[in-house]
């Protein structure tokens, strides 16, 4: 080999080494921008915290957003999932940063003690009973459509009643686009009344309260709604008997093909409206989520003729063919873990690890239908546009990364909550890491 060839080779090796070191350095820096969604301006001065999910929920570093709302963290150790937490006016906001991603932007909102544009989309009470105990779950879906967007937060941010003698079990809250987390229900002066000091951020917040009641075979219950609600839904086994109190208006949605569950609905509920009812008998809910949702939807369509006039029943949501599809989440009383490509990820995870797919947290009496997301966000046909042949693979790759991001986050949450064993965690983590590595290689 000539000296000229040797020099050229050494130059090429040096250039490649420099390029590799540059890439490694870039991969070890995580940057982003914190934006105030209320003012659409940079959230200068907000605290930004880096949380390492590879070791639970360890705080790895913290900083302040600069005058342009930007922040930067130097990452150390093996690549792993991180969570970015921004604190604005005492309320936290989060954004996932999976392995291989070096940019994560966070949006925050100004806080108000009272926001006018709050509404309860659904208030769901789900019951089952044996000879001595009644088990109940109450789910609230609260929508914050404030404009400009603001977060409501005070010491009594959301209040509700439970029946006398109720013993509260697990309480969970789910922020918009977040994961279910444990929350506290604080008793008020009226011991049947409770308050949740959980921020109502712009979007849809969900609260789920599990409770038990002493039960001798018959009980009277008054939901005592404190807020206007589009629908108040009662779900119970068909083996139990439901009787509305005098003056309480409920619409039955029973159907012979619906399995062992029946649903009673009160519409356009007003605060303080008398909606008492009594329950008799015993029974448990054993059917699948699809049976509950499809049976209720079919019966509603038959009874209402898909009437979408105000006050004309649940009606057919605009651009949604199934009149009750929009409310499957509420009837089933659960929290959805939304993955962009959930089916693919779950199939891959099950085949590679024999570990059960991610489930909705905290659901002991039900689960959520997978088509809820499509019903909540119906698509509008648009004019076809020419798309380069290279775009679909890139789009699929981005969707895969988004799905893996959510799956990694949920896996860490389940481990932190002790819902999976160390062996299950190790197997699932290894499979996800391998899939993520392959996806990043394809994308690069």
Structure description:
There is one protein chain. With 444 residues, the protein is of the alpha+beta class. The chain folds into three domains: 80 residues, Immunoglobulin-like, CATH 2.60.40.1120; 215 residues, Sandwich (Immunoglobulin-like), CATH 2.60.40; 78 residues, no CATH class. The chain has seven helices and 24 strands. The strands form six sheets. Strands 15-14-18-11-10-20-23-22 form an eight-stranded mixed beta sheet. Strands 1, 2, 5 and 8 form a four-stranded mixed beta sheet that branches. The radius of gyration is 25 Å and the shape is globular. About 27% of the residues have low confidence.
Shape: globular
Q: Determine the N-to-C terminus distance.
A: 34 Å
Largest sheet: 8 strands, mixed
Q: In CATH terms, what is the architecture of the largest domain?
A: Sandwich
Number of strands: 24
Provide mean pLDDT, rounded: 73
Strand order of the largest sheet: 15-14-18-11-10-20-23-22
Helix share, percent: 25-40%
CATH fold name of the largest domain: Immunoglobulin-like
């Amino acid at each position: 080999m000539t000296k000229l060839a040797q020099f050229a080779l050494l130059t090429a090796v040096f250039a490649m080494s420099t390029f590799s070191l540059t890439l490694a350095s870039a991969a070890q820096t995580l940057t982003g921008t914190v934006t105030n969604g209320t003012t659409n301006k940079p959230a200068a001065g907000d605290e930004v915290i880096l949380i390492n999910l590879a070791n639970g929920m360890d705080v790895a570093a913290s900083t302040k957003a600069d005058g342009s709302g930007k922040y930067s963290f130097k990452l150390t150790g093996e690549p792993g999932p991180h969570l970015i937490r921004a604190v604005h006016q005492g309320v936290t906001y989060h954004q996932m940063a999976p392995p291989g991603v070096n940019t994560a932007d966070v949006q925050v909102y100004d806080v108000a003690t009272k926001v006018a544009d709050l509404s309860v989309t659904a208030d769901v009470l789900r019951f089952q009973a044996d000879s001595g105990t009644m088990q109940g779950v109450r789910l609230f879906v609260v929508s914050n459509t404030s404009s400009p967007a603001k977060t409501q937060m005070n010491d009594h941010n959301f209040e509700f009643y439970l029946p006398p003698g109720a013993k509260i079990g697990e309480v969970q809250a789910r922020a918009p686009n977040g994961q279910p987390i444990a929350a506290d229900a604080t008793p008020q002066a009226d011991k049947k009344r409770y308050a949740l000091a959980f921020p109502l951020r712009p979007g849809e917040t969900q609260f789920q309260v599990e409770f038990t009641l002493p039960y001798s075979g018959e009980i009277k219950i008054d939901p005592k709604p404190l807020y206007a609600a589009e629908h108040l839904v009662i779900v119970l086994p068909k083996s139990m008997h439901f009787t509305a109190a005098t003056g309480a208006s409920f619409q039955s949605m029973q159907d012979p093909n619906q399995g062992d569950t029946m649903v009673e609905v009160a519409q356009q509920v007003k605060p303080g409206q008398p909606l008492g009812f009594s329950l008799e008998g015993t029974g448990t809910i054993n059917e699948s989520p699809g049976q509950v949702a499809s049976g209720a939807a079919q019966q509603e369509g038959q009874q209402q003729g898909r009437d979408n006039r105000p006050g004309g029943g649940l009606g057919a949501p605009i651009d949604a063919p199934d009149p009750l599809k929009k409310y499957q989440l509420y009837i089933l009383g659960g929290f959805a873990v939304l993955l962009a490509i959930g089916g693919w990820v779950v199939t891959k995870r099950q085949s590679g690890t024999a570990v059960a797919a991610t489930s909705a947290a905290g659901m002991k009496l039900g689960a959520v239908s997978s088509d809820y997301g499509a019903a909540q966000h119906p698509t509008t046909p648009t004019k076809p546009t020419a798309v380069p042949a290279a775009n679909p693979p890139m789009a699929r790759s981005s969707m895969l990364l988004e799905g893996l991001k959510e799956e990694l986050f949920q896996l860490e949450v389940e481990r932190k909550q002790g819902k999976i064993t160390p062996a299950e965690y190790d197997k699932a983590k290894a499979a996800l890491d391998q899939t993520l590595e392959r996806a990043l290689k394809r994308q690069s």
